[in-house]
Fold these 4 entries.
Entry 1:
Amino acid sequence: MNTPTTFYPIGTPGQPWGAAERAAWRARQVKQRSYADDVLTAIDRLRAQFDVQQYGELDAGPDGRFPVFALRSKDWREGLPCALVTGGVHGYETSGVHGALQFAERHAGDYAGRMNLLIVPCVSPWAYERIQRWNAEAIDPNRSFGDDGKAAESAMLKALVAPLKEAFLVHMDLHETTDSDEGEFRPAKAARDGQPFEPGEIPDGFYTVGDGEDPQPDFQQAIIAGVAKVTHIAPADAKGEIIGSPVVAHGVINYPCRELGLCASVTRARFRSTTEVYPDSPRASPEQCNAAQVAAVRAALDYALAHAG
C-alpha cells in the first residue's frame, strides 16, 4: 500500500482549514453511488418485517436532501431488552451499511419476542454516496456524539435514541478500517487540523473496539469468536498494537468512547462494541465483509441475552 509523501493538496501546511479550504474539499467530493438505490430500496423491502421510522432529514444544500430511517421491531414490547445496531456513521464503510441491512433481512426474526431491535442502517447518506468519511462540512460524525458535536447526522441519531438511552442492553456500531484511511482520510485530517501527517499501519483483518470505561472483555471475545468463523482476525503489529492502540486481547482494542464523542457512547448499553472490518484484504470478499458484520451482531446479541441478568 502506498502512503502519501507530500502534503495534502488543500490548505497550507501548519494552518487549520477555514471556510475556503472546506469548500475546496467539498468541491472534490463526487457522487459515486446512490443512497436511494442501494439503501432506501432495501429499506422499502423490509417494511413488512419492521416498523420503518423516518427520524430526520439531512439537508446537504446543493447535493439535495436525504431522509434517514430506522427499522424498529414490529413486536416491540416493554420489558424486553433492547438492542441498537448502527451502520454507515462513516458513509464510506460499505459493509457497515449492507451488513446492517443483511442482518435485518435475514436474521432479525430470530430475536422476535426475545429482544427489541432498533436498526439504523445508514447514518450518513451524503457520505455514503461519495464514499467519504466526513460529512459535507468536513466533520467526522463519529467524533460528534459528545455535547459539543456539530454533525447533523450525529445529532439526529442522538435524538432518535434519547428516549431509550437507558433501556438498551447492547449497541453494535458497524465500521471498517480501509487502505484509504491511510492514503486519504488521515492525511486529510492532518491537513484540516493544521497538523503534520504521520504514517501508520493498516491491520489486515477484523477487530473490535471496546469502550475503555467499561470494556466488557468477555463480550468482545464472544464477537471475535463469532466473526472468526467467517473471516480472519487482525493480528497485533510489531508494537503489540492495532492502529496505535494496545491490543488487550486477540483482535480487541479499547477507546475512550465518551471522551472522543464516538457513536458507541450514544447509549448507556452495558454491552457495546465498534466493529472494524478490513475490506481491502486479499483474503476477504465484499460478501465476507457483510457476513462478518452479521456474525458480529449475532454473536453480540446472543451473548447479551445469555448474560442479561
Entry 2:
Amino acid sequence: MKSLKRMAACSILTALLLGSTTVTAESVIQELYSEELTARTWEGIPIKHMDQHWAKRLFQWGISSNIINGYTNTNLKPDQVITEAEFLKMFYRAVGLAIPNASANSAYRPSENWTEGLYRTAKLYNHPTIGANNFALRMKPITKLRVAEIISGSQGVHYTGQYAVTYLIGQGLANSKATSPQQFDGESTLTRAEALQWIRQLALHGKLTIEQRPKIPTDLGLLPEMANTPPEVIPDFSTEPVTDEDFNLVIQGNNSELRFGDSKKSIDAQFGNSSGKSIFDDDMYPLFNAHFNQNGELDGWKTYLYEEDSIRPGVSRLTKKGIVLGESTITDVISRYGSSGVRGNGIIDYHYKKMNDGTYQDISIYDRISNMEDVCMIAFLVDDKTQVVYDIIVKSSLKDAF
C-alpha cells in the first residue's frame, strides 16, 4: 500500500490533472511530454456563472476531486437547496466510493434511476435516510440534522438527533460555530455550496473517511463534553507566507541542509555519492532523492519514510516550517502552510510564484497558470488512518513535476 502511495507521490501533479474530467487536462499532459515544448499554460478548472460567488474555489475543488458536477446546462446552482439524494451522491464521491449509475446520463444500468446505487450504498453502511423506500422523499431537501446523522455514522458511531449533533460539535466536524444542538438549528436545510463546504471541513480535519454505522446505538457516555466557546472552523482555503528557505530540506542529527541551487558536487560531498537514478531521473541518496537541472544544480527533492528508518535513531527530516517526516500531522501542515493545499485522499500540495521583489505569491492550481515553469510546488502525503506525513516533495516548477 505504502509503496503504491510513494509512486503516486512522484507524479502528484500528473495525478491531479488526470483526476480532472476535462479534455484540457489530458491535452496538457500529452503536450508536456514533447521535448520541443519549454513552457505550457494550465487552464485550471474553469467554471461558469460563479465568478463573484463566495464558493467558487470550493466548487473548483469539488469538480477536480470528482465530488460534484453541474446540471446539463453547466450551471452548478450553488445556492439551490440540496436534496437527500444529491447529498448522498456528493458525500459518497468525496470519500472515494464508486457509485454505479450515480449520474442521470450513465451508461450503467440505463433503465435504473441514478439514485438507486446511492441508496444501496446507504443501506450497506447503515446510514439513515428517508428516501430508501420512497422515491419522492429522495428529492426532498435534506435537513442539517439528517446530514449530521449521516456524517457521524460515517465515523463509525451510531447517534441520532441531538446526540449526533453533539458528537460532531465535540469533534469539530459540524461546520458550525454552535456550542449546542439548539444553536445548530438541525431542522434547517442547506444549499449545495454549504454542503460542499461541510465536506471540505471533513477533508481539512482528515476525516473524509467512511465506516459502517453500528447496528446498536453507541453509548451516550462516550459523547464529548460541550465547550463553552465556539469550536474553530478552519478557513476553506487559507494561506501562509513562504520564503526561499521553505524550499530546503533540513536534516537534524547530522546538522545538514539540502538547499535549492546547491551543486551536485557539494551534495555528494555532504551525503556521499548517489546510489543511482530513480525511474523519475532523480539521484538517490540514503535520506532523500534529488533532481538536478542541466547546470547540475538542485531544483527538486523528495523524502519519504523507508522501512529502514527505524535503524537511524536521532535523524529527522523536516522543512524549515517544522513539518517533521513521520511525526507531523495534517493539522500541523495546515497550521504552518494554510488550508489551501488540502486536496483530500491524503494529498496536500501548495503552489507559489516568485515575484520580482523576491516574495512568493500563493497560486491556485484551480485557476489559469500562464507559465507552469514560473510556479513551484511543496507537497505532502499523509497516511489515511494516522494522518501523519510520510512523504514530502518539493519542485522548482510544475512542468518539472511531470
Entry 3:
Amino acid sequence: MTTAADIMHPGAQSIPATETLDRAAQLMRRLDVGALPVSDADGRMCGILTDRDIVIGCVSHGQDPSRMTTGDLVRGTPRWIDADAGIDEVLEEMRTHQIRRLPVIEDKRLVGMISEADLAHHLSDSQIASFVGSVYT
C-alpha cells in the first residue's frame, strides 16, 4: 500500500506564528516552496501560510510585511495526515477540505508535505482527473 510518507516531499519546515511575513517569504524563497506550516508557542501546527496569503493579506492592503506576523494571517483549523495513511485517505482529506497542500505528521512531528505535484508523480491519470475535478469545482 502506498502511504503518505511514500509520496510526500520530506523535510518540510514550519515557521513560528510570531515570525514576520518578510522572514517567511525569505524562508519560502530559500526552500523553494510556496507554503509553510505555522506553529504556535507550543510547537503545534496552527495553520499554513502561502505566498499568496502574504501578497493578498498583507502587500495588497499596503501593510508592511516586516511588521505583520505569520500568525496574523493564518485562519481556521489546519489539516494534516499521518505518515502511515494510505493514498486514498490523503486524497479524501484533500478533496473534502479542498486543499492543495497537506502536511504529513509522524509521532506528532512535521515530517513532510504533500502537494499537487507530489500527487501527479504518484497517481494514475484517472486518479489525478478525479482529484482535480473535486478540488477545483
Entry 4:
Amino acid sequence: MAEQHFQLEVHESGLNPHKVANGEFDDDGKPSRTGNLWTTSAHIITAIIGSGVLSLAWCVAQLGWVVGVATLLIFSLITLYTSNLLADCYRSPDPATGKRNYTYTDAVKTNLGGAMYVACGIVQYANLCGMVIGYTITASISMVAIKKSNCYHNRGREAQCSFSNNPYMIGLGIVEIFLSQIPDFHKLSMLSIVAAFMSFGYSFIGMGLAFAKVVSGGGQRTTMTGVEVGIDISAAEKTWRMFQAFGDIAFAFSYSQLLIEIQDTLKSSKPENKVMKKANVMALLTTTTFYMMCGCFGYAAFGDRAPGNLLTGFGFYEPFWLVDMANIFIVVHLVGAYQVFSQPVFSAVESWANMRWSKSTFVMGEYPIAIGNKFKFNANFFRLTWRTIFVILATTLAMALPFFNDILALLGAIGYWPLTVFFPVEMYIAKRRIRRWTNRWLGLQLINVVCFLVALAATCGSIQGLSKAFNAYKPFQAKE
C-alpha cells in the first residue's frame, strides 16, 4: 500500500522516477529533504528555550515549591502528548504514508475543514509576528544590560545607568534583514544549532550563578506556597501574579505553531512522524531539565524577590564579565530564534504571491550569486523586498511599543490553548474517528478544558499587566 501511494505521488509530481530513486527529489516533487533527529531537535530547542527560561524563577516564586514544580511538570507532559498528536497530522490520512501537509494550517484544513483553517491561520500568524517583535525587544534589553553591567561595575551599583533601547533594536533589525534572505527552513539548520548552543550557554550561567549563591549561604527564604500576602503584596495582586505565572509557564513550553513546518524538513527515508516524536521527547526532556533547574535554583537564591529575568533584571552584578557573556549568548540565540519564528510567515506570503503572480519575473525569478567558490545562493527580488519591509515594520513596532512584552504575554496566553492543545486534540479525534462520550474522548476534552481555563486566567493576568503599562506609555522612548 505504501509503495502504491509513493508511486502515485511520483506520477502526480511529473518527476522522473529514477531521479526520485536516486535521492535528487522527494516523492512530492520537491528537492530531497536533509533534516534528521538532531537538526529537528535543534530547531525545537531554538524555538522553545527563549530568554523566558530566565523568568521561571519569578514564576516559581509566585506559585511556591509545590504548585510551581507541579505546573512545570504538568505542562511539559501536556505539550509532549499534544505535540505527538500533531506529529501524526503531517501526513493524511495515514500518518506514515499519506499526503504531506506542509504547514500547520494545511494540516488543520485537511482534517477539520475551511472554517477551522481560517481561525488557525489568524491565531498562528498573529502569534508568530508577535514573537518576532517581542524577540526584537528582548534582544535589545540584553544588549542594554551589557552596557549597564559595565556601568555598574565602573561607577557602583547606585549609579544612574539608563540607556535607550532604540539604537540596539535598529542594529538588530539590520542584521535580521540580511539573515532573512535565508530562503526557507531547510537552510536554517546551522543557525538553529548555533542558537540552541547559545541557549544552553546562558541557561547554564544563570543556573550556575544561582546555585553558587545558594551554596555560599546567600540564598533567601522560600515557602511551599510562594510569595506571601502582606505589606508588600495584596491578595488580589497575588492572584493576578499567579495567573500570569501559569500563563508564562504554559507559554514557555509552546512550539506547536512551528511543529509541522519543522517536521517538513525531515528526510523521507523513515516515517517522519516517528522521527518527530523522538525529537519531541529529546527536546522537551532537555527543556524541562533546564526549566526545572533555572526555576528552582533561581527561587532558592532570591526567594520572594526573584527578578523577572535573572540576567537582565540584575539579580547578579558580579562577575560582570560572566553576566555580559550570558547576555551575548541571549542576543545570538534570539537572532536565530527570530528567523525560526519568521520563516512560516515568509513562506505563507511568498506561496500566495507565487500563485497570484506566477508569470512575474519579479516574484518568480531566481538569480544565482556566487561569492568565491563555496558561498552560493539564489537572489529573488520579491523575497528581498518583502522580507526587508517585514523586518523594518517589526523593528518600528518594537520601538514604538515599549510595553509590547505585555502584549506578547497576551498573544501567548491567547495562542497557547488553540495551537498547542485544541487543534491537535480535535485533529486527532477527527483522524481516529473517536466517538463522543467514550472514555478516550472524555480524557482528551478534559485536557482541552483545563488548558482553556489556564489560558483564560493567563489572559486576564496579561490584560491587568497591560493596563499598568499603558499608564506609563511613551512611544519610541523605551529605556532600561
